[in-house]
Design goal:
Length: about 180
Amino acid sequence: MRSLLRAIKKYKAYLIAIFLIIYVTYSFSYYQNDKTAKVLNIVDGDTIRIKYQNRKKLLRLKGIDCFETSSSKHAKNQSKYHKIKLNKVFYWGNAAKSFVKNNLTINKSYKVRIMGKDKYGRFLGYIYLDNHESLGLNLLRRGYCEQMFFNKYKSVIHKIEYREAEKQAKKEKLRIWNR
């Protein structure tokens, strides 16, 4: 065991360099596969109707969950979980939708990264603004939503920065975190 620890200590700089090379290579190839999609309309804060590869589809933003804009089982669960009234859930859901409308232009193409589909057949993925930052990250930083990753999606590219953005929004008590 001691010899293993000595070897790790001796080659620590090399191991770090190898890890960084692998990480940068992976990140580069990850973003190389981005495509574009035209925004057709905004459904709510985390769902956008797009035209992607000549097909109209719904894109559910991956890694975030905005409050609902109308009555549903999920809205009631959000109200109960966050200990806020249902009308506050709708208020913040509509605020998130307005934020998205102000940051995306209808009939304009944006870079997207499709990661799969959800159980409703919607695309799961990311949409990137003109500043190359994901819309989901923008929503999180401003306190319009909470981060939400499931283990089965195994996405690590945004997981850490999304978690930190939510933590900062909570610390600053922005929007949905202002309680």
